Amino acid sequence: MIRIHILGSAAGGGLPQWNCACANCVAARNGKIALQTQSSIAISSETSSEWFLINASPDLPRQIERTPPLQPRGDSPRNTPVAGVLLTNADIDHALGLLLLRQQEMPLVVYAADETRTALAWLDNMLARFCGIEWRKLGTDFQSLGGPLAFRAIELPNSVAFQFRDDSSGATALFAPSAGKISEELRNAVHVSDVVVFDGTFWSDGELRGVRPGARTAREMNHLPINDGSLDLLHQSPARRKIYTHINNTNPILMPGTRERAQVEQAGIEIARDGLEILL
Ligand SMILES: [Zn+2]
Ligand SMILES: [Zn+2]
Questions:
Q1: How many whole angstroms from 9 Cα to the centroid of ligand 1?
Q2: Core-most of 4, 39, 63, 189, by most CB within 10 Å?
Q3: In angstroms, what is the span from residue 211 Cα to ligand 2's centroid?
Q4: pLDDT tens digits for range 150-177
C-alpha cells in the first residue's frame, strides 16, 4: 500500500498570500474558507517508516508539526523519518524548504533533474555550510526508493512529474504539480495511474491579470489552466481518485458555490486541502 499525505495544497504564496486582497485571500483571513500552505506531498510505503517528500515548501516545518508520521521518533534525540526530497523544478516555493532542514546531521538526499540542480546552485552553496546536499539523479525508468516503493520521472517543459509504484500491490500514483503541457507520456500516465494528483494552479490562462495587470499567463508560468487545459484530460481518466493541488489563491475553485468549482466536482475531480490523506 502507498500512503500519501498532502502537506500543502496551495501554489506559491499560500492562501492567504501576505500581500493579496483577492476574494479568496480575504475569505481565508476571515475564516470563511480553509487556509492552505504551499504545495508539498509526503509519500511512503505502508511497510516502511521512511517518507519521501515531493517538493519542500517554505511551510515545511509547520507541515511536519501537524503530521505525526513525519516527526522524529522518541528513541534518539535527533532523527527524522524524512529520507529524501524529490524536486519537480527549482521554483522557490518548491525548494526553499530545503534550507529549513539545515539542522540535519547527515546530508539531505535530493532527487532532481540536472537543470534543477544547476538552478539551485545558490541553495546548494548555502547548505554546504550546514548539512549539505547529496544529489541523486532522476531516471525515466522506475528506480527503487528502498522497500517496495519505486518512482520514475516524466520529463515536461521546465519541470518533471513523478510516477510512483508500490511493487507489493502494483498500485501507482502520479504527481504533476507543475505541468505546462500534456505530453504523450504524461497523458498515458494520467490514464494508467490509480491516483492522479495534478496541477490545479489556475482556472484560466489570464487569471492573474485580474489581480495584477500585465501578469504572465498561466501557460507562460508553466501551468496548464484547468478550464481549457487539464479538465477534460482528468475527467476522461479512469483513475480511482483525481485531485487538483498546487492551487493558486486567485483560483475560483477554492470558493464554495462557484460555477468553476461545480464544474470540477461534476467532472469527478477532488480539490486538495492541507492534511488530505490517501491510502492506495
Ligand atoms: Zn509552485
Ligand atoms: Zn489572493
A1: 10
A2: 39
A3: 8
A4: 999 999 999 999 999 999 999 999 999 9
